[in-house]
C-alpha cells in the first residue's frame, strides 16, 4: 500500500510517500520520496525541494504563490523526472493530512468528507494560520486524485482526553463554551 502524507504549514508544504507492506513494520518506515515547498525564501516564488530513496534530488523555483499549483507540480515529481518513484499517481492508495484544529469533535483519524471539510473551515478562527492551508491541501489533492481516499489526523486529537480542569483556561467560562480550550498541542 502506498501512502502519501501531506503536512501543510503556514509557510511550507512537507510531503512524503511511504510503502506499507502487509505486515506492520518493527521500525519507522523510510520514505520512498520526500518533498518540501517553501514560500518564504523569495517573494513571488516558491522553492520546491524533492529527493527520493535512490538518492536523486531536485531543487527548483516555482513562479507565483498559488499553493494549489505548487502542490500539483510537487505531486508531478512523484511520477515524472529523476525523482519519480511511481509510474502514475494512480498507484497511491491513500492520502493522509495533518490538520491542526479539529475542535472537540474529532478525536481520531477521520476519513475526509464534505462534512469534515466544512468543520475544518468552521474552525478557521481557532487556527487561522493553519486550518485554511490544511484545507487547501485537501482540496488540491481532491482535484489531482479525486478517487483516492483521504484521511485527516488532527493535532487537537492528541491530548483530547485531558481532564476538564486541565483543558479550561483561566478565562471566562463562556470562552470554553465557544470552543476555546487547551488541547495540549503547540
User: What's the helix-strand series?
Assistant: EEEEEHEEHHEHH
Number of domains: 2
**End-to-end C-alpha gap:** 31 Å
Main β-sheet: number of strands, strand sense, barrel status?
A: 8 strands, mixed
CATH fold-level name of the largest domain? Nucleotidyltransferase, domain 5
C-alpha Rg (nearest Å): 18 Å
Strands, count: 8
Q: Mean of residue pLDDT?
A: 90
CATH class of the largest domain, please? Alpha Beta
Using the alpha-carbon principal axes, give the shape: globular
- Uncertain spans: none
Task: Name the features.
186 residues; globular; 23% helix; alpha+beta; 27% strand
Structural notes for this entry:
The structure is a single chain. With 186 residues, this protein is of the alpha+beta class. It has two domains: 11-16 and 23-87, no CATH class; 94-177, ATPase, nucleotide binding domain (Nucleotidyltransferase, domain 5). Helix content is 23%, strand content 27%. It has an eight-stranded mixed sheet. It starts with a strand and ends in a 9-residue tail after the last helix.
Quick overview:
With 186 residues, this protein is of the alpha+beta class. The protein has 2 domains: 71 residues, no CATH class; 84 residues, Nucleotidyltransferase, domain 5, CATH 3.30.420.40.
SSE topology sketch:
Layout: E1 2-8, E2 12-19, E3 33-38, E4 45-52, E5 57-63, H1 67-76, E6 94-99, E7 110-111, H2 114-122, H3 131-144, E8 149-154, H4 164-167, H5 173-177
